[in-house]
Specification:
By secondary structure, the protein is α+β, with helices and mostly antiparallel strands. The protein has helices at about 35-55, 55-60, 65-80, 80-95, 125-130, 135-155, 190-205, 205-215, 225-235, 240, 250-270, 290-305, 310-320, and strands at about 5, 10, 15-20, 25-35, 100, 115-120, 160, 170, 175-180, 185, 245-250, 310. It has 13 helices and twelve strands.
Amino acid sequence: FASWEREPFAAASIGQVHRAVTKGGEKVAVKVQYPGMDKAIENDLKSVALLESMMSPITRKLNARQTLDEFREVFLSELDYAREAEMADLFRRINAGDPRVTIPRVHHSLTTRRIITLEFVEGMSYAEFLEKGTQEAKNKAGQTIWTFTFRSMLRYGVLYADPHPGNYRFFADGHVAFLDFGCVKMLPPDLIEGMKRYMRAAMDNDWAEFDRACVEVLGYDPKDPSWDLYRSYTMELMVPLCTHGVWQCSPEKAKETVSYLTRGLKALAFKEGETIPSIPMVPKMPQDFTFVNRLQWGLASVLAGLEGIHNYHRLTLPWIKGPRKPPKGLEVPEPV
């Protein structure tokens, strides 16, 4: 590098980010992984696995083993910044030609498994944009984040599973830069089709097919007392897709969606007249669905802050009813 700022200007989950200038004169952001982070995460995962085995009668009912396996795979892949660089390139290709989306260019000659160098992107932080952005800009930003997320997942089978406020930079006209591609998953085609199946059913008001998809795709049990809770919760998540007019996310709506599930599970666990709580049935969803759940909650939180208004039904419909068909020449890497 021609110059390097010793003090980091940002911290990531497993590293810190420095400003620098390349010898070619380009401003860059360099994320450097904390020393020994790979061993620390591996040791933490071993400790959690030991705890899971010690509590196996309970964790079997919670399907904790498959969740732990999924976390292990994703977290260990996040340690490889060379893979993150590949994922950034992939998302640049997916979003090529969309002026609303900015993906920083990777400097591959200055990137290794523990260091990733990206072009420096200006823009406002999430908090600054909430304070200074116009409502029109917030509407456009919400639409852009929604498009970036669902187009990637439903059309290409690529899940951006880390919708954290710190992973975005915002601009006054509402376009958005996406910064972190460490937590990315390639979803299998059958899971994508299963998700589209219950989404299509909800959009078409075909509730018999919706119920079948809840059983066959999401693992809900219609004979279990938890059936109404999980089914209703899934229907609640479908509201933006099923609203034919404009829909606005708000902090109150996002909070209520999660609170609804929490209250329902609490009611199932602490039944009147019983002194010892019972563990409610937890659906055995496909293992790859673990981070889809993370996406749902994280995305709802980000959009709630923006309080954007848009017709998300019309926006998402082509991806739900259309095929999973990457454009010619797009190569999707296999998961590590």
